[in-house]
Amino acid sequence: MRKITFVLIALLLFSGFVFASGSSEAAAPSDPNTVKVGLLCIGDENDQGYTYNFIRGRDEATEMLAADGITVEWVTKYNIGEDATCTDANIEAAEEGCQIIINNSYGFEPFMLEVVDEYPEIEFISCTNCASAFDGRDNTHNAFANIYEGRYIAGVVAGLKLQQMIDNGEIAPEEAVIGYVGAYSFAEVISGFTSYFLGARSVCPSVTMKVSFVGSWSDATAESDAALALADAGCVMISQHSDNTTPATAAQSRGVFHTGYNNDMTGIAPAASLISTRIDWAIYFYEAIKAYVNGEEIPQDWCKGMADGAVVMTPLNEAIAAPGTAEKVAEVEAAIADGSIQVFDTSTFTVGGETLTHAFALDTDGDFTADSEEAVFDGAFHESLFQSAPYFTVQIDGIEWLNAAY
Question: Does residue 110 lie in a domain region?
Fold first, then answer.
């Protein structure tokens, strides 16, 4: 009797071990039309900006895929740091059975890459980054969009407002100064504020810009403080490449105007915020997940723009926008889509008083070298042509960097 009991206990323990050791694989859906996807976020939806925009993309893509008969089970992790916690979050998502894991912040990629070789059957995606495009692995991918196109249009909206203020005698031409809250002095931010500036100057020739870097993608207080300081320094228009809405509320508190990023900010700053631009991540999520389910390759380095619906503008705040703005926005959108407007047209800016004639893009090792592809040709700098992540780092005339410590 004791021997039988021992055997039964051993069998139970063994079966329990098998169940436990196979639990991570069992968590993955068995239905071929169901996929489990991890989404690792630097913030949460309460920022009403960057992470909120990813959550919106997640939810919209889920509906789009459902219409095609594909079910997505999401594992979303919030407030992940650009540090070892990101490594842990990728491991956790993998062990929970995620078949695709999406990292949503620029600084996540190095930590993601520490994990990918341990899970070759899982597809890892790093948004807004570039190393995965060149690392030679089959299960790593990058994705971004031509957000500089939307920023150019937001700049047009800002410039029309500034020109209206000049024409009405509210400011002198030299007082048409934009203050820009930037996260870091990285290519993504430089590309964004330069395209914004060029859009503004296309309709307000006297405009200049001051940029303040805050050293964080998401620091609501620092972003507010920078916006307030810019307004106090004479900037009458505030814009941003940062994750929160505080630059908008700071602009409104100082009685100046604002354009935003990632979300419509007119609701929290109706007297200040004119328009925003954002990436519609639903477009990419839909394409990548559908490709996976259909047994197709996820693109190694994905990038689309306004013509494909990947970059969109939020509704124009017509209560405070300059007359004719809506019509001008439609005109410029069409011109960008058909290529008749090149955002970085080298005839529209100078560098140290000279026309830009060459600027190497990144090579396949992710470095700027003499062997890199030449980004300047046919009279324009061709941003995001050679890789999805921006590589425009040129400091053009008319834009003052107040600090460059980051």
Answer: yes
Report the length, in residues, of the chain: 406
The model's pTM is 0.89
Q: Are strands 380-381 and 34-40 parallel, antiparallel or unpaired?
A: unpaired
- pLDDT tens for 314-370 read 999 999 999 999 999 999 999 999 999 999 999 999 999 999 999 877 655 556 665
CA 306 to CA 295: how far, in whole Å?
A: 28
- Residue 252, domain CATH: 3.40.50.2300
CA gap 108, 143 in Å, rounded? 13
pLDDT digits (tens, 9 = 90+) for 137-177: 999 999 999 999 999 999 999 999 999 999 999 999 999 99
> What's the rounded Cα separation, in Å, for the pair 183 and 188?
10
Residue range of the domain that includes 371: 147-278+312-401
Q: Does residue 302 sit within a domain?
A: no
In sequence order, what DSSP letters do the residues of 36-102 get, joined into one string? EEEEE-SS-GGGSSHHHHHHHHHHHHHHHHHHTT-EEEEEEE-S--SSHHHHHHHHHHHHTT-SEEE
In-domain check, residue 211: yes
For helices 187-201 and 147-167, angle between their N-to-C axes, nearest 10 degrees: 40
Regarding whether 220 and 192 lie in a shared domain, the answer is yes
Rounded Cα–Cα distance for residues 279 and 333 (Å): 15
C-alpha distances in Å from residue 243, one per residue of 44, 45, 47, 218: 10, 11, 7, 5
d(CA 178, CA 207): 7
